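Reviewer 2 asked us to include a model.

Predict the structure of this chain.
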Amino acid sequence: MLLRLLVSSFLLAGTSFAVPTKEKRVHRHGDLSDHPHKDATDFQYDHEAFLGKEDAKTFDQLTPEESKERLAKIIGRIDINKDGFVNHSELHYWIKHRQRRYIEENVNKHWREYDVNQDDKISWEEYKNTTYGYYHGEEFDDVEEKDTYKAMLTRDQRRFKEADRDHDGIATREEFTAFLHPEEFDHMRGLVVQETMDDIDKNGDGKVDIDEYIGDMFTPENGEKEPDWVLTERQHFHQIRDENKNGYLEAAEVAQWVLPTEVDHADNEAKHLIHETDTNKDGLLSLSEIMDQAEVISLSTITDYGGMTLAEHDEL
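Predicted model (structure tokens):
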């Protein structure tokens, strides 16, 4: 079953699954996947949670035999105590490891781009000049959508200053990580909430009403009827999000919405994968339990993924 969870997404790759904006608005520490968690129709969440967002792409050019061989190697690396089984703790640690690795790789990629003078630091001027080029004049007069660019610059500068904890105008690697992934740092939570409010609070009254909340997720076209998920979100707004029942979401309520802290998604995903795969219900995953499901999956129907391969030297 785990193999199905990991690779069935490829069989569905030819189908487009609309991801409502609401799914993208919620920040989970080290997002396991950009896809919604919908096992009934789509296993992409499980696939990316297990392999990591980037390494999930490696299976696109593998034959069924190669896919199974690669998966066996991955399982061997997850099995930290080398007892031949994968337990919950090992799987939880692996998923967290893949989260951290994705963030590190993303920061490294941008670090090379923005550290222009290669002094192993990124100044605000380096970031601004690299991002906006000659458009970084105060008024953006040469740009058609200059108001948009000015707003982007202001937003970036505010985030850079928040990440720059010693306020020297220069970002260390840790500070630059906070700039790129603010949801990972407690001291950036207020900024994430502020950016969300800036996006959604269209009338600027400092709170989010039901129309602004729904409008961020769904805009009907040509008299289009609201889909069921929008009706569900209306209920969530009134019954769950609006905790003080005053008809609005204030900053604290927005924070609880976009930065949920009470759930360990890596832990839940590890429990979920074991539940779906542990056929003898001993709380452990054997290689045979994983591989026994391989024959029912047409792994050759793998499309729509490309990119980096899983490095053999990637240690836990």
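The first helix runs from residue 2 to 11. DSSP finds 14 helices and four strands in the chain. We have added this to the supplementary material.
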